Amino acid sequence: MSKFIRINKPHLQNAQHYAMLEAFVTVFTEAGFTAQKLVTLFATLNANFSNEDRYYMLARASEVIARRNAADTTRDKLYTKLYALVRLWRNSGNTAMETAADALVRVFQLYAVNTSAQIDTESGQLDNLITDLSTDQMQAHIQTIGGKWLFDEMKAAHQEVKAIRLEQGTEESEKVSGALLKARKACDEAYDNLITAVEAFATIADDPAPYEAFIKKWNGTLKIYQDMLDRKTGSSTGSGTNNGGSGSGDNPSGTGTDTPGTDTPGTDTPGTDTPGTDTPGTDTPGTGGTGTITPGGGDNPGGMDEN
Questions:
Q1: Which domain holds residue 132?
Q2: What is the pTM of this model?
Q3: pLDDT at 184 over 70
């Protein structure tokens, strides 16, 4: 009887874990199994995967961040242009212009807005600046130097940044501590229950061929993710397959562990005039097993996003 390869799912990065489950859902759906037990377990996996999808997308929040950054860039450019216009009129030779510009410069200098600061810090500085520039007296000065349209556009862009930041904050508040980790764990449990049931059906079914074919097909995909884990840890997992065996009871053959081999690099000793010899390292393969990987890493999967 064939068995599924077991990989260390908690050590997959978030994107890898998501992609693996998405692929499994597709392959399982295409298999078209109708046994009620499998249908029920698959529905549980699908529900948990939807939850992981939600928190994974929240963690990335790429669309909201992109809009916020674009609005912030626009706001910064308008602030810079308005301040440049104010300084330009300080030495214009026009008394009215210089008086207005001098009054405005003092307000700009008071808050010293830093457009390179953290976005919330800059927003606080601009809140104060815009409040002071919104008085009747300052608005008259801005009108005098012809900067009213710049001020209005800067103020609008500032309000947009704050609105998007609030939207982002609302989304982030939905991410309770460890929500994505919990969603991943729930998916892993549902996935393990489902593939264990498929293996059982492959044993007891009158026609095990569909189940055997599914196991073989999915194992081909799992090898890709096992390779990802191997590259991440620099280890070797042998053949990476689990063919099961004819054992009985709770400990069938073919469920041993797979121990990575040890790779000892050679040394390169240069001579005075004669190049040293380069002795290649010895790569001793690990004890052969069946590809069963014992999960590690505790409660913290690799590549967890903190967003």
A1: 64-174
A2: 0.45
A3: yes
